[in-house]
Amino acid sequence: MTPTGRFAPSPTGPLHAGSLVAALASWLDVRARGPQARWLVRIEDADTARCLPGLGEHILGQLAACGLQPDEAPVWQTRRTAFYQNALDRLTAMHRAYPCGCSRKDIEIALAAQGVPLVRHGERPYPGTCRHGLHGRPARAWRFAIDALAPPLDPAVHDLRWHDRRLGPQSQDVAATVGDFVLRRADGPWAYQLAVVVDDAEQGVTDIVRGEDLADNTARQIAVQRALGLPTPSYLHTPLVLAADGQKLSKQNGAQPLDTGTPGAALAALDAAARALGLPSPDAAEPAQALAGWVGAWRVLYNPRP
């Protein structure tokens, strides 16, 4: 299989310093594998309520200014709904997905009744209220069944293990920490956990390089991959760029859009991203020269597969 990586931004705001780290890392990881490898860009605009018109195109322009050009035309999640529906239909037929009628308040009440403590800003497992029926309520969402609702059961999902190329051995008890998670939300959009699995498999992605804040999603995505009989890519989660308050730099906490309006500004943005990845500052006058120099350094630091 052709080595294939991807960068998959959500068009909820322009690229900022944190998102460029993930873009540069995924690009370098592909280029370090040689000329046969592919780097793709996917605009993850499935959550249409949060995505802003024109930002997908703006992000593509920012990437181009930094010399990060995809090897194929970018794809947009809003044009791929048939793929997600097909996957949901398959999971439902296999008793690995079911409709859920719970509101957030319903879930809180059920967890309280089970004695599950409230954790501030933490995720709590779904209590399984609708696993065996809606109990007269209308369906609000669709959930993935961590344990199959009919045999055979898959014991591997209880303590799912994988290896991260930077973070090392990882594991998560998905049932205990998350429970049956959402595949399609009550307000209609496809959930990230389903869309990303379907897209990566359909596009032939072999190696996922993304921010460390997404590492916690990996076990859920591997569970969906296994249920659908899809291959599991390799994973590398990059260091986070932190804001002044120590929190992850993001659009929600005031991350400033990247200035890529001139080659000098684009080179400065790339230099900052490279330093976050442990790469040396470039002896270069333009982005293309810097990128060429970093490919060899990436091979030494992260040892990508051939």
UniProtKB/TrEMBL annotation:
Residues annotated for ATP binding in this entry: K251
Residues of the signal peptide: none
GO terms for biological process, alphabetical: glutamyl-tRNA aminoacylation; tRNA modification
Residue window of motif 'KMSKS' region: 248-252
Family to which the UniProt record says this protein belongs: Belongs to the class-I aminoacyl-tRNA synthetase family. GluQ subfamily.
Residues reported to bind Zn(2+): C100, C102, Y126, C130
PANTHER family: GLUTAMATE--TRNA LIGASE, GLUTAMYL-Q TRNA(ASP) SYNTHETASE
Binding positions for L-glutamate per the UniProt entry: R6, F7, A8, P9, S10, E44, Y192, R210
Gene3D superfamilies tied to this protein: HUPs
Key words, A-Z: Aminoacyl-tRNA synthetase, ATP-binding, Ligase, Metal-binding, Nucleotide-binding, Protein biosynthesis, Zinc
EC category name: ligase
Motif ('HIGH' region): 9-19
Record text on cofactor binding: Binds 1 zinc ion per subunit.
Cofactor: Zn(2+)
GO cellular component, one term: cytosol
EC number: 6.1.1.-
Sample GO molecular function, one term: ATP binding
Pfam families reported for this sequence: tRNA-synt_1c
Limits of the Glutamyl/glutaminyl-tRNA synthetase class Ib catalytic domain: 6-108, 177-256
Coiled coil: none
Protein name (database record): Glutamyl-Q tRNA(Asp) synthetase
Organism: Variovorax guangxiensis
InterPro entries to which the protein is assigned, alphabetical: Glu-Q_tRNA(Asp)_Synthase, Glu/Gln-tRNA-synth, Glu/Gln-tRNA-synth_Ib_cat-dom, GluQ/Sye, Rossmann-like_a/b/a_fold
Function: Catalyzes the tRNA-independent activation of glutamate in presence of ATP and the subsequent transfer of glutamate onto a tRNA(Asp). Glutamate is transferred on the 2-amino-5-(4,5-dihydroxy-2-cyclopenten-1-yl) moiety of the queuosine in the wobble position of the QUC anticodon.
Source species taxonomy: Bacteria, Pseudomonadati, Pseudomonadota, Betaproteobacteria, Burkholderiales
